[in-house]
Amino acid sequence: MIDRYDAHGRHVGAVRVHAPGSVRLGPDGRMYATSGDNPINMVPGLPLTGRIVSFDPAERKPAVTTIARGLGMPNGLAITADGTMYVGDSNLGVVKVRKNGTIDRAWTARAPKNLAPNRVVNGTGMNGVVVSGDTAYVAMTSSLSSRILRIPLSAPERVGVAADLTAPLPGSVDDLALVGDRAIAAATATGQVIVVDLRTGSRCTVNAGRPLTSVAVAPDGRSLVVASEDGSVAVVR
Fold this sequence. Notes:
Methylamine Dehydrogenase, Chain H, 6-blade_b-propeller_TolB-like, WD40/YVTN_repeat-like_dom_sf
């Protein structure tokens, strides 16, 4: 279920979506969400039932439409101005989905895979995704250093390291949000919001005291909205 709240924190609606992950506003004014964010979709050999769905937030009772199929355990989602979607799939890895809903398999084959760690991809469970300019930044749920990957959109095989949020300790990063043009905010399952300056590497950490699953920049541009596994929603200023 995807719940809707107004600016005063009042629950004003809900849209039924199976096992939603990220929820994002598209350039066309519609809401997009990953569906199938369930650990059972990590089991090898099972059909790939993960999807991207869309609905009109202006409708009183939004109708949910399937935009893309064939994903594994889709979680993170970023949408560019031309409607291209990039998915952090905890089963398949980083997946590019065209505006028409088809998977760009050539691009995806060159992008980081899940369960295939190496010197740069030092973890598993592709999760939060944001796009800034010609670069995607991707978090991994399980990483030896809470690493955020830097992936050039034109050459996804040239993946690099954007930041190590908790090095030398491991961490559990979930969702990401782009703050301005030079910083990223990360929500962690251990209860922190970590904001990192991508140019300098400097970090600021806020302890929320509960496992966090998502983070987004508020409309005022100066606050972050974070959600927790206990169902609560909080504002970080």
